[in-house]
């Protein structure tokens, strides 16, 4: 109890306490997340710093929350599941992320892989995400303001690519930028019908696996100031 009160003093709220975070981890386990490294990183990443202060008391609920500009911070379960799928075959060196948003998924992944190259089309979101990662001393991330449909060809190939907005089709540029054996985790579809896919680059083509139904904001076109 003393510790929780202490947390309240520092943050002005009680919902960021260790016990609240532990409850989230327990829930992710129940929902089927098994990767211990992923669970551990989610436990120690302060999600309340990635949302508006007015929403901080809900930061450890397993739900997406608004972050402004019609965008949302991904649901913790989805962050965990997508990270787990990326890492299923072992550690990754170079990962590209499309859709930085709040930077929460970026922050989680940055503690699980060597380097991240993160692309976002909305400048103000990117700037805020950058600040948060610096504040948390997560320095293995490079940001690009641009269009995720194009990826980041200059730095390709990537061992992993994660897309946190739903695409109508799998962008060809992202397939092209996958290294041999590279893994792409991407929601595909439109409106209500969206499926999370895992695509792996094999010697002669791509293996595709449908993971399940999901709900994401759309992957839009072009950068936005
Ligand atoms: N992983 C983020 C989710 C943000 S929502 C988080 O947890 O906060 C999806 C993000 O994708 C939004 O920030 C949106 O601006 C961005 N996005 C949408 N279309 C894009 C595009 N074509 N290129 C880059 N980013 C895009």
UniProtKB/TrEMBL annotation:
Pfam families attached to this UniProt entry: PCMT
Record's keyword annotation contains Metal-binding: no
GO MF terms, alphabetically ordered: protein-L-isoaspartate (D-aspartate) O-methyltransferase activity
InterPro entries the UniProt entry points to: PCMT, SAM-dependent_MTases_sf
Class of this enzyme: transferase
Domain of life where this protein originates: Bacteria
EC number, as in UniProt: 2.1.1.77
GO-annotated cellular components: cytoplasm
Main location as per UniProt: cytoplasm
Claim: Transferase is one of the keywords in the record: yes
Catalytic center residues: 74
GO biological process, one term: protein repair
PANTHER family noted in UniProt: PROTEIN-L-ISOASPARTATE O-METHYLTRANSFERASE, PROTEIN-L-ISOASPARTATE(D-ASPARTATE) O-METHYLTRANSFERASE
Stated role: Catalyzes the methyl esterification of L-isoaspartyl residues in peptides and proteins that result from spontaneous decomposition of normal L-aspartyl and L-asparaginyl residues. It plays a role in the repair and/or degradation of damaged proteins.
Family: Belongs to the methyltransferase superfamily. L-isoaspartyl/D-aspartyl protein methyltransferase family.
Name assigned to this protein: Protein-L-isoaspartate O-methyltransferase
